[in-house]
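Page 47, continued from p. 46.
Same chain as before, 169 aa.
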Amino acid sequence: MDVHPLPPLLHNRPAKIAPAVEELATTLRDRYSTVAVAYADCGTYGALDEVCGRLGLRRLGGSHCYDALAGAGRLRDLVSREPGTYLLTDFLVRSFERTVVAELGLDRWPELRDDYFGHYRRAVWLAQRPDARLSALAHAAADKLGLPLTVLHVGDAGLERELAALLRQ
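Result:
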């Protein structure tokens, strides 16, 4: 199996995900007998499903990667108990300064924080492989957002299960 990643910042512009997947998948189809998409819907509102259907591709199930990490039911329960939940993954914790702070301009205009995050009530880190460094970064991210942090240890089992299901199809 080969992995061909797309730029992670596409998640900040979900309308660009489906076209990027289509372009990459089209180039890979000549090189591989099977091409699968390791994206959930990720805010494309069905555009990714349309591309996958048209090209005969399979993708990860769920609305977003958080479903794969925590499990759709567990995540639904988590968010229904507190709709104002901002979710962090290990990747977001590691890249928070670039993918959130810089991309949203909070490094230049910190006063925008409350405009962006004022309706959130907590941050939940879906910790896959927590260690002291990631924990410190997760707390720093939550502090930067002005939110209390809850750590939910999810590990890699959910993602492994979803990837295995994707490859079995």
